[in-house]
Amino acid sequence: MPKIDIVAVPIRRGSGYPPPFDAPCAARTRRRLGEAGGLRDFGVNLMTLPPGGWSSQRHWHSHEDEFVWVVEGELTLVTDTGEEILRPGDCAAFKAGDPDGHHLVNKSDRPAKVLEIGNSDPRDRCVYSDIDMVAGPGAAGYSHRDGAPYPVKPR
């Protein structure tokens, strides 16, 4: 596999979350490195979070493992057990099926970069811990926990 030219990988800004849940993630950017390298079974993203930015809404996955590794800056990992600071070289792992909702928040005054790695499983259901929202499996977009869909946000 040839070297991936990271700068040439398109930048994706924001999230697909419906309003108002998209606001804390509006300024985050991602480069889908795994996709650029032709990977299909797992994803690798380089995410940049500006000061005040969130990686996502707090969530957990039924069938997908997640791993994050801080490359640059300082981030606050928020889980059911509280908050923990992550700095360059620090990492965290989230096992599929563990209902410990998590996300990263940049509470510092400078941008931070994190490498995100996770598998792709068509059976996955993502549950958002603090809000009435779920995703999947096989569903397009997001829905309330009772199954009622949120309006699809144009990208």
Write up this protein.
- There is one protein chain.
- 3% of the residues lie in helices and 37% in strands.
- The chain has one helix spanning 33-36, and strands at residues 11-13, 29-32, 42-49, 59-61, 66-72, 75-79, 82-86, 91-94, 103-105, 112-119, 126-128, 133-135, 142-143.
- The strands form 3 sheets. Strands 1-2-3-10-5-8 form a 6-stranded antiparallel sheet. Strands 4-11-12-13 form a 4-stranded antiparallel sheet, with no helix packed on it.
- A hairpin with a 4-residue loop joins strand 11 (126-128) and strand 12 (133-135).
- The longest helix has 4 residues, at 33-36.
- The mean pLDDT is 95.
Summarize the structure.
With 155 residues, this protein is mostly beta strands. It has 1 helix and 13 strands; from the N terminus they run ββαβββββββββββ.
Order of helices and strands: EEHEEEEEEEEEEE
Major sheet summary line: 6 strands, antiparallel
What is the percent of helical residues? under 10%
Number of helical segments with 4 or more residues: 1
In percent, how much strand structure appears in the residues? Answer: 35-45%
Multimerization state = single chain
* Stretches with pLDDT under 50, minimum 5 residues: none
**Tally of strands:** 13
* First-residue to last-residue Cα separation: 30 Å
Q: Could you tell me the radius of gyration in angstroms?
A: 15 Å
What is the mean predicted local confidence, pLDDT? 95
Strand order of the largest sheet: 1-2-3-10-5-8
* Structural category: mainly beta
Estimate the global geometry from the Cα principal axes. globular
